[in-house]
Amino acid sequence: FRKLGKLRKLFGKVPFLALTATATPEIRRDICASLYLKNPTVTCTGFDRPNLYLAVEFKGADIFNDISRHTVRVGNRLKFEGPTIIYCPTKKLTEKVCQVLKVRKKVHEDFVKDRIQCVVATVAFGMGIDKPDVRCVIHYGAPKDIEAYYQEIGRAGRDGLQSHCHCYYSSADFSVSWHFLSNLTGEFRAHREDMIRRMEKYLETRECRRKLLLSHFEGEEGRAAKKELSKICCDNCTRMFLNKDRIEVGGMLSTDGTYNFAPDAKLLLGAVQYFGGKFGLMVPIMFLRGSKNKRVREDSYSHHLYGAGKNKGESWWKAVVHSFSLRVFLRLVHPCRRWSSNTPLLAL
Question: Which domains does the chain have, with CATH numbers?
Answer without folding.
Answer: 2-34 (no CATH), 52-241 (3.40.50.300), 262-347 (1.10.10.10)
